[in-house]
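New to this. Explain the following:
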Amino acid sequence: MTAIEGLANRLRPVVQVLGGKFMTSPELAAVEAEVGLPPRSLYLRGRSAVLGDVPPKVAAELFGIFPHWLFDFVLPKVAATLDAPAAVRAYAESSARWSRVHLSAVPEPGRLADLLFCVVDAADASGLALFAGWKNAERPSGDVERLGFALMVFRELRGGVHFAALRALGLSVPEAVVADPEGGRARLLRTAWSEEAADELTASAERKPDLRERWQRAEVLTDDRIGELLASALSEAELAELDRRLAELGSFAQVPASLGA
């Protein structure tokens, strides 16, 4: 593994965990209640609303991991309550509140945000719809809030690249969840699949004899593409600084060193 591949691999758990923590946080639940949405709906509405009023079936494809019925059930009702621009603002406010609670003690949060945004801004967003939307969304002004937002947008970048890698290798997102040592049937159940559907998905995925090899190849391919982007967007000194600051952030937030995508 080259140095840049190592950095891309080390970046993954920090961005994946901290870029998504607010999505299931008390801070998001509080904003959700303030804007009049039912519990556990702002994540679906806010994240997709950056692309406008996305039809439920399209939103389900964008998110990848959830069953389609969830979007059919949730989105029409919440879209009637909260228009797309307001949903984007509420989702971003959730990230900002979470960041103020959990990232305020991070040393020089603005500098780490700057480094992450350098990579985000250099990335080609074509074909990565959610990343394209959040890359071009209004960014907060405060350093702590900017860091939380940068982690979220970078998470969308890596997630979009990873989804593309999975499809190139013939895996659906649920199949990748089955293959992931950190995922499996339990994770399917946590993401609204019924026990029957989770069993069917697991059995179908396990019939691919090279399931886990394909998943691992997709992980490597994703790290390769993120590594190339890092190398093209940042100088050697900036790469070393990003590596150091991410390690500090991961240690500060007690992020596990390894995590499946």
